[in-house]
């Protein structure tokens, strides 16, 4: 008999529900919140309210698409953290209520573990490319930039992480100063395709070990704009593609320099990428280039599993279910990173 998991994700501004049968995904429904676009970033209170409106229709749709009745669900997996507290509370409360009402196990999932485990999702009719343990994962999103050594689904070691901004945050903040809409990452990715990546040089951090830093890059980007705009008020408009391409290639160089160092030091050449920024076409290109140049075995997620989704929460939930690693109904959500 297969295990049916209902998974809930509500850590930031996407309300998502998924249904899995063992490690096979049956449905993955995501309601993205448009309300934040005009504010240039996620407004926590609005996100929480939108989750409250979305959660029931989204779960309903996920069950419908999966063709699974709620009485067939064996356990509920939900994102406990990290994320925005008000957002997490909506998914957590829903998951607890569902589990209590059906008297089935509740499984708390770390959102970052979910991003990494997205590589293990299987889907009928789709070829899966699953990394063997141990592997290294570059986890890059709007809130995190980490190199994680993944020894098993529950044994993950952070080798390095950002000491200030995340890579996605650097994209979003630089996009904002150029007057581009939120989220800036996908917009920069698109504009960069027509630009010259060598047109401008920006600051690259010099920090020890495997940690990242993006705040210096952000400041150097801002100063470049400020200095040029003094001379030419239309500087941003006239150089938009080149600015995007140069910024993007600097972010990718910073990410890949440390990742190469980690591969060399560990001798692990199975290398995955995960998180919202893994949708970036140039970062995907850099992974392919490294596979050719250095013989890396690379694992790049499908676009649908790069940004926040409940399918990735469900796959962790499934493995925890097999281990009977259930959680207590009294567990509160947490907003800060713990792996
Ligand atoms: O993982 P995610 O959906 O949310 C967090 O948990 O943070 O990641 C969102 C981040 C945003 O910063 C967004 O700008 C970035 O991922 N992003 C991209 C691209 N698509 C999304 N950054 C660069 N290029 C992209 N194509």
What does this structure look like?
With about 350 residues, the protein is α/β, with parallel strands linked by helices. The protein has 2 domains: about 5-125 and about 305-320, 2-Layer Sandwich (Nucleotidyltransferase, domain 5); about 135-300, ATPase, nucleotide binding domain (Nucleotidyltransferase, domain 5). It is built from 9 helices and 10 strands. Strands 3-2-1-4-5 form a 5-stranded mixed sheet, sandwiched between helices. Strands 8-7-6-9-10 form a 5-stranded mixed sheet, with helices on both faces. The chain starts with a strand and ends in a 17-residue tail after the last helix. The model has no long low-confidence stretch (mean pLDDT about 95).
Write the layout of secondary structure elements.
Blueprint: E1 4-9, E2 14-21, E3 24-32, H1 44-66, E4 75-81, H2 85-102, E5 106-110, H3 111-117, E6 135-140, E7 145-150, E8 156-161, H4 167-177, H5 184-192, H6 215-231, H7 235-266, E9 270-274, H8 281-294, E10 297-299, H9 311-322
Parallel strand pairs: 1-4, 4-5, 6-9, 9-10
Antiparallel strand pairs: 1-2, 2-3, 6-7, 7-8
Helix pairs in contact: 1-2, 3-9, 4-5, 4-6, 4-7, 5-7, 6-7, 7-8
The protein binds 5'-O-[(R)-(carboxyoxy)(hydroxy)phosphoryl]adenosine (KG4).
């Amino acid at each position: 008999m297969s295990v049916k998991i209902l998974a809930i994700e509500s850590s930031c501004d996407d309300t998502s529900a998924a249904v899995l049968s063992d490690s096979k995904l049956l449905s993955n429904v995501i309601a993205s919140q448009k309300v934040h676009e005009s504010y240039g970033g996620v407004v926590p209170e609005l996100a929480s309210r939108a989750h409250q409106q979305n959660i029931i229709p989204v779960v309903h749709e996920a069950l419908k698409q999966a063709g699974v009745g709620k009485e067939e669900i064996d356990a509920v997996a939900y994102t406990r953290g990290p994320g925005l507290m008000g957002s997490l509370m909506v998914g957590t409360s829903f998951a607890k209520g569902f589990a209590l009402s059906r008297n089935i196990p509740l499984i708390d999932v770390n959102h970052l573990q979910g991003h990494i485990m997205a590589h293990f999702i299987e889907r009928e009719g789709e070829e899966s490319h699953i990394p063997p343990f141990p592997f290294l994962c570059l986890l890059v999103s709007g809130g995190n930039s980490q190199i994680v050594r993944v020894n098993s689904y529950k044994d993950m070691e952070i080798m390095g992480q950002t000491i200030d901004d995340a890579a996605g945050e650097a994209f979003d903040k630089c996009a904002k100063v150029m007057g581009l809409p939120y989220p800036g990452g996908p917009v920069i990715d698109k504009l960069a395709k027509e630009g010259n990546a060598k047109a401008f040089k920006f600051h690259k951090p010099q920090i020890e070990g495997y940690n990242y830093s993006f705040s210096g890059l952000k400041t150097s980007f801002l100063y470049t704009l400020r200095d040029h705009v003094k001379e030419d008020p239309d500087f941003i408009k006239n150089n938009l593609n080149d600015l995007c391409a140069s910024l993007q290639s600097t972010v990718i160089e910073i990410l890949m320099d440390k990742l190469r160092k980690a591969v060399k030091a560990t001798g692990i050449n199975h290398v995955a990428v995960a998180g919202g920024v893994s949708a970036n076409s140039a970062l995907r290109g850099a992974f392919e280039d490294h596979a050719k140049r250095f013989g890396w075995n690379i694992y790049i997620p499908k676009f649908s599993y790069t940004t926040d989704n409940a399918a990735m929460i469900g796959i962790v939930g499934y493995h925890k279910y097999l281990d009977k690693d259930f959680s207590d109904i009294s567990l509160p959500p947490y907003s800060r990173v713990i792996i």
